[in-house]
Amino acid sequence: MQAVAVSRFRAPLEVMDLPSPTVGGAEMLVRVEFAGVNPFDWKIADGILEGNRPHVFPLVLGVDAAGTVEAVGPAVGRFRVGDRVFGQFLHDPVGTGTYAELAPVPPGIGIIATPNELRAEDAAALPTTGMTALASLDLLALPPGASLAIIGASGGVGSIATGLAAARGIHVTAIARASSASRLRSLGAEEVVDPSDETPSAVLSRAHPSGLDGLLDTMSDRPGFARWAALVRRGGAAVTTTFSADAGSLDRAGVRGGNINLQPSARLLDRLAKEVVGHHLKVPLERQVSLSDAPAVVGDLKAGRAHGKTVIRLRP
């Protein structure tokens, strides 16, 4: 099978011909139609989990995918050959990923049936970023009519969070470049503030003089997150996906929240799928690329040049 992999940590990404995986017991094999591209993918290739989890090489990138069940072990009872499935495929050993024509699925990981209303390419774009967005909104626990600023709204997590929050009746202010304004408004943002035009904190202070009800930050370091969190009113909530929150500082300011540590599961993914389908949400899919283009796409993502979601197309 063809796959995008690295021969060692921090090595260049290559399209390789690798042996097809086999399954047995409670495992199944999925023929990948589309693989979702996430920042976590290149971080794994650069060794972010080195020493913490077992790895195999060549290390095939990718944790998200949508496809059809190709084969099932004798102990698999939930799925059958031909079923449409999607989810987050990350498991040990790390390195049998989804940037490949075939991906193995051990028992107990977050894979569910793809709803009939969801295209495979949209399903592949959702798992990691979508579950992170949903978990963030769960922690924020904002009611309809509340104000929410999303920092880095043009990225994968921010784009999906914009749609999910707007569907709940939350007033979303997206902090993103003007070039993304039209797309973010189409996802449900009521305001888009370009950080290069004016200090966003000044804009938000004018628009919400009593303070924001909520903040979702997908990109700031610790000092940056602290500056944004200072705009949240006492009793409000602020969360970050970059592990940059100081719980003590938030507590002293009377602000709930903190760092999001995603715990992916089939149950959380099922909730996400039902919200997307039930609210007819637009999945922020920017582009589809071929497997041969994947190394360049990951390079763009690593360099911060990517916006929205990209999926790799593996079907003919």
List the helices and strands and how they pair.
Layout: E1 2-6, E2 14-17, E3 28-36, H1 39-45, E4 55-60, E5 64-72, E6 84-88, E7 94-96, E8 102-105, E9 111-113, H2 120-125, H3 127-140, E10 147-151, H4 156-167, E11 171-175, H5 181-187, E12 191-193, H6 200-207, E13 212-217, H7 222-229, E14 232-240, H8 247-252, E15 256-259, H9 266-278, E16 285-290, H10 294-302, E17 309-313
Parallel strand pairs: 4-7, 10-11, 10-13, 11-12, 13-14, 14-15, 16-17
Antiparallel strand pairs: 1-2, 1-4, 3-5, 3-8, 3-17, 5-6, 6-9
Question: Could you please describe the fold and organization of this structure?
Answer:
28% of the residues lie in helices and 29% in strands. The chain is α/β, with parallel strands linked by helices. The strands form 3 sheets. Strands 3, 5, 6, 8, 9, 16 and 17 form a 7-stranded mixed β-sheet that branches. It is built from 10 helices and 17 strands.
Oligomer: single chain
Structural category:
alpha/beta
Counted beta strands:
17
The low-confidence runs, each spanning 5 or more residues with pLDDT under 50, are none
| Average pLDDT metric | 93
Radius of gyration: 20 Å
Distance between the termini: 14 Å
Give the helices and strands as they follow along the chain: EEEHEEEEEEHHEHEHEHEHEHEHEHE
Biggest beta sheet attributes: 7 strands, mixed
Amount of helix:
25-40%
User: Number of helix segments?
Assistant: 10
The coarse overall form would be globular
Strand content: 25-35%
